[in-house]
Design brief:
heterodimer, A: 230 residues, mainly alpha, B: 199 residues, membrane (chain B)
């Protein structure tokens, strides 16, 4: 019996749009999200067993419990996040809590400076709020995440090129990226600072941001469902 | 602390986070989206546990005046911005953390999303430069400023300063609320497991 099958995020696009839908048709489920629970699990099991060749990563994510092998089995996210939380408390004590959006903004500024040169200074945002400079610590968290994830992916043999195949996926990703960028700048925070910084500090902004992000995710899910079904 | 030391600590912290997130396949987007779309809570539980630990840690240190809390004004723009962010992250299939992690795994879609996040930020900087809203630094006073649509900021430390009640007390209340949500999710999962067993 396959227990605790985990659907991977990047495969979710593919799975939902192709196999999941077709398999569910075959299993005579009327609507994708109204499927009886048992049937859903059988489908998941089927996807995992049949999808092994095409998506090797899926097979590697079947959790069998027992001891943790860092580069063989998927870690329990609760354990991983607990470790991150403890480290984040140390970071909070030394420089400040974990955020990502600020570092990304600084990277945007540096990239814009590389392209536009001194002309960038004519935009008040880049001279008043964010003056591009290389020694901004938040930027190095993002670069570190990239490095750490690359290391993890290579060591566990999960590094391979994945390219979205359909035009609709490209459109969704492009729109999503733009909305994320605008959203981060409008709010001055991203989801990391919301969940791992502001809310645990009990900042008023944390509660505002959590309600915003939940509302947004809900609307986003509706749009996502529509696009998958249409 | 010197700037270089700060950057190095940040890089090391980021590397550990990247590795752990990659190995655990945690994703913030999935934490919200899967709970909404599929009623599965694998990532949501992890998010709640992290928030519980952080609430206790942060408020405990804020009680004694240690740590570096974020101080900036919030208001309607916080809600609106994160609303757009929420829609965007579901469409892109990744949040700020997982775009980096997925890009490092060789996901071309994530690199594309990241590129357009940068473009989105730059576009907004043009808009900000055009009318300087929100929030122009002058409107950020730390106190409510309705004309500038700013609600000021308040956190466990400022609550402690205003009321004299230690920050950790507020932290414990928030911890209890988060634990309540976590337990509700566990109850739901257990009920489902029993349902499945009966089938």
């Amino acid at each position: 019996m396959i227990k605790g099958v985990v659907l991977l995020d990047e495969d979710l696009h593919l799975l939902l749009s192709y196999r999941f839908f077709r398999l569910q048709r075959r299993h005579k489920c009327l609507a994708r999200y109204l499927c009886p629970r048992g049937a859903k699990r059988r489908l998941l099991a089927k996807i995992t067993t049949t999808g092994r060749a095409r998506w090797p990563i899926l097979a590697s994510t079947i959790q069998q419990g027992g001891k943790v092998e860092l580069f063989k089995k998927t870690l329990d996210p609760v354990f991983a996040l607990a470790v991150i939380a403890v480290l984040d408390i140390f970071l909070f004590l030394t420089i400040g809590a974990w955020t990502v959006g600020g570092g990304e903004t600084m990277m945007t500024g540096l990239m814009a400076q590389a392209i536009l040169g001194e002309d960038l200074k004519r935009l008040p945002f880049w001279s008043l709020v964010f003056q591009p400079h290389w020694d901004y610590w938040k930027m190095y968290i993002s670069l570190g995440m990239f490095f750490g994830a690359f290391l993890g992916a290579v060591l566990s043999k999960e590094f391979y090129l994945r390219v979205p195949r359909r035009l609709s996926e490209w459109v969704m990703i492009t729109l999503g990226g733009l909305l994320m960028g605008v959203g981060i700048r409008l709010a001055f925070v991203c989801n990391v600072s919301t969940f791992f910084g502001l809310t645990p500090e009990m900042n008023l902004g944390g509660y505002l941001a959590v309600s915003g992000i939940v509302a947004g995710a809900w609307v986003g899910s509706l749009v996502y469902k529509k696009m998958l079904e249409g | 602390m010197s700037t270089i030391a700060e950057c190095m600590i940040a890089f090391i912290f980021g590397s550990v986070v990247g590795l752990l997130v990659q190995r655990s396949r945690f994703c913030n987007t999935a934490a919200l989206r899967d709970a909404i779309m599929f009623q599965t809570y694998r990532n949501t539980k992890a998010l709640l546990v992290a928030m519980m630990i952080l609430t206790l840690g942060f408020t405990a240190f804020m009680t004694v005046g240690a740590g570096h809390p974020l101080d900036f004004d919030v208001g309607l723009n916080t809600f609106l911005g994160l609303f757009l962010f929420g829609v965007g992250m579901v469409l892109a299939g990744a949040c700020t953390v997982s775009t980096w992690v997925k890009a490092a795994e060789g996901n071309v879609g994530a690199v594309w999303a990241l590129l357009f996040t940068f473009i989105g930020m730059f576009l907004f900087s043009l808009l900000w430069s055009y009318n300087q809203w929100p929030p122009a630094p002058a409107s950020m006073t730390g106190d409510p400023n309705p004309e500038a649509l700013q609600a000021g900021f308040a956190n466990a430390r400022t609550l402690q300063e205003k009321t004299g009640i230690p920050a950790i007390v507020f932290g414990l209340i928030q911890f209890a609320v988060l634990l309540g949500i976590y337990r509700a999710i566990r109850r739901k999962e257990k009920a489902r497991e029993q349902d499945d067993a009966h089938e």
